[in-house]
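Try it yourself: sequence plus tryptophanyl-5'AMP, in.
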Amino acid sequence: MSRIMSGIQPTGSLHIGNYLGALLNWVRLQEEYECYFSIVDLHALTARPEPQELRLAVRELAIGVLASGVDPERAVLFVQSQVPEHSELAWVFSCMTQMGDLNRMTQFKDKSQFQADNINAGLFTYPVLQAADILIYRADRVPVGEDQVQHLELAREIVRRFNGIYGQTFPEPIVVPAKAPRVMGLDGESKMSKSRGNEIGLFEEPEETMKKLRGAKTDPQRLRRNDPGRPEICNVFSYHGYFSDAATCEQIAADCRSASIGCVDCKQSLAGNLEKVKGPIRERAQELRANQGAIDEILNEGGNRARAVAKETMDLVRERVGL
Ligand code: TYM
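Structure, out:
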């Protein structure tokens, strides 16, 4: 049976890109497969967060993941740094990863631009740790958004190299694609991400979302209310595709083309449908926040379960490589 592994960084709060690109798949896959979902705090260190803030972010992310529907009875939810074998395997993997391959990683280039004053070695070897996250569980499927596909290709390359040198040890993990692998940001220019400040937060109150939507770019040719619009190129309309049913999408598209509705009407309808998804998640998160002890227990239990599997893999790796 396939094993699933995926991770998410505790940097900033969850947005609908994370939800559509990853979490929805996590919730679906936990019904069928053995799943390991990790809050990757070691990865977050590459951006040098304040210690106290990092700890809070880990907890808040756990709450967000649980509120989105990940069930700790079905999936193993844990904090990466509680399983030291991730770092150990990452070292072994880094000894079989070529600098040239790491140099090609587009996320490294992007992130280096964002934090030009702190281009640390962790940022460079980040995908090696990511490969270890997956393979310490010998997982063969990884539900992630499109921005992680290149990292997965590198993980496959590492596996091929390892297996080639030491004998068949790891499966080659493949991506489980999301229905929305690349959700665009409110600017309509780049993917939704917290660092660009173009996100719709999963926990946002409806008023805040509507305020952001008001400023969101639509069809640039639709300057006046009476101009006919082109939903097929409108970023806001693309969100309807994720949150509104087929009939609503069709109606909005037709009314936009004929200019019988304006962009504000379209955005209001979207905000309502978004809230149908966000509202219940926000409420569940609020309930979870009231019981921090239970969150700690879930994470500790997840850490114990993850460590048991990680140790098995690491024992095998030590034997194979001669440690
Ligand atoms: P992170 O924390 O940036 O994002 C978490 C997940 O959300 C997806 N995602 C998106 N999907 C669609 N549209 C978007 N705009 C969007 N923004 C984010 C990401 O693709 C990801 O699936 N390196 C990873 C974390 C990681 C990991 C792993 C993932 C560490 N180890 C092992 C899988 C397996 C990251 O930074 O994701």
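One thing you can check immediately is this: The pocket of tryptophanyl-5'AMP is lined by residues 5-9, 17-18, 20-22, 40, 43, 130, 133-134, 142, 144-145, 147-148, 180-183, 191-193 (CB under 6 Å).
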